[in-house]
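FYI - complex with fructose -6-phosphate, inputs then prediction.
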Amino acid sequence: MCGIIGYVGRNNCMPIIFDMLKRLEYRGYDSAGISVISDSNLYLMKDKGTVDALRSVVEFVDCSIGIGHTRWATCGAPLKHNAHPFLDCKKELALAHNGIIENYRELKDGLMREGHVFSSETDSEVIVHLIEKYYTGSNLIEAVRTALGQVRGSYAIVVLDRRNKKIVGARHESPLVLGIGKNEIFLSSDIPGFLRHTNKVVYLNDNEMVEISHGGYSVYDFSGHTLQKEVKEIQWTIEDAEKGGFEHYMLKEIYEIPRAVQDTLRSRVDASILEIDFNDFERILLIGCGTSYHAALYGKYLFENLLKVPTHAEISSEVRNSTLAMSDTLAFFITQSGETADTLAAARNLRRLGATTCAITNVVGSSITRETDAVFYTHAGPEISVAATKTFVSQITALYMLAASVGEVRGEISASVKTDLRNALRVLPSELQKVLDNAEPVKNVSRELAKYENAFYIGRGYNYPIALEGALKLKEISYIHAEGYPAGELKHGPLALLCEKVPVVAIATYDELYPKMIGNIAEVKARNSPVILFSTENHPEANELADFVVEIPENHQIITPAITVTALQLMAYYVAKERNCPIDKPRNLAKSVTVE
Ligand code: F6R
């Protein structure tokens, strides 16, 4: 996720352009850049680092039109030459892009054969060269349309044309909104970009384009037809708008899950990157802290099930001092931030012991990427709330993609399992959306759970890590003491704690362990604990044992946990809200834990 902007209007507009970018920094902040036209010259200023850092070093020129970008790297490290905007070879056009171009390698190869020279490792740069290829100098909108016809993926773009002093914007599965001011027009990934200047908005839909210049704006569809769009007035404050109208970043990020999953799926996490023989390894280790450890534990079930290789999930702080020889080990380090000190130390240690190491991270260019032999990115976009939400769902999606691709290389996954899983993944984003669109049952049970001081979360198999993650989410933001347990383990101690004051959140989505879960729920009920049940639609057998039920869409048993955990995150959020907790910044916690 990145932030893009376009502006046409007043003289001396560089401060406005920087202010707009600053407002979008929540979408990315590892590099920034702007391009403006002054005296018919095209200026490009960009660097790694924040918008403020760039602003403090550039020379301000007089201009009244320009574009800008604040980046969250997905393809190409966060370095100056990979920062947007990008110029075409003739330096007539500048482009900023938000999204992922899936077929950029083949497009780039073709363009290079035709003589185009590239300056970055990004996927985005191909778009400006493609536009250059089709642009004769008079009809930019047509050239952009032709170029985008060849692009596969998601994008919102802004293209600045030096000769004609205009900007063309276009969107497909990435946001772009138009702001209409008095004698000035704004384009932005999100409303906060321009809300200080105007509250008049034109929402662009997917596959729509807009041309803005000092003469006004026109909106078109991708077939070239002019569209009449309604101008809407929005009533939010800037603060509301930065959270996209959500009260907290955590809620906003939960609602970004369907999009984040789609981006992870699009990124094609592929085992071929590793260039290793998977048959060389006797075991796989999955390593992380906190939420990332829970993703590792989910991965253990997944890898053993799909790959038939002994797989262990380990907590980083526990393996960082291991002394075992590991030349037979393939180790994955899962870390959203890529900066967690314990995980970095564990990666260093296991590499020293001979393991082949891979990182799964959300932050391009983070420290973990320098400590491992290979890197997979989750592409969930920046996460601001301390509690990890969308990044966890992206981690388990990436793990699934890895397992599927390694399984294919090893010949462990049958064609029918592959088809089942592919179909399951295809509907995952819409099923996630369904949970988010129908949050009432979750809100109702949250009001009940908020009354207690202790809770247990139970699950079996794939749902055991999901129980751990649900409990972690609840305790860290609502301060209710919560423990996740394998459901079969209750009878070995914790049952002693169960009573009417200790509710149990039971995750009993449908799989081969479902009958056993029904037995465990009966055990809990016999101790008078209130039961909050997360079950799957079409399988209500356990519902009558529960005091409260949240039904979630049923998918493949490997994929359903992504849906269940989204509902559990939402429940933790509403419990914390009910208890008036500082949700985005829970006490004693930090987003990135760089101490040991
Ligand atoms: C919980 C949470 C933490 C992190 C943990 C590891 O919501 O966010 O438990 O998961 O500190 O962080 P990363 O994944 O950045 O290594």
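The chain has a mean pLDDT of 93. The CA atoms of residues 423 and 556 lie 9 Å apart.
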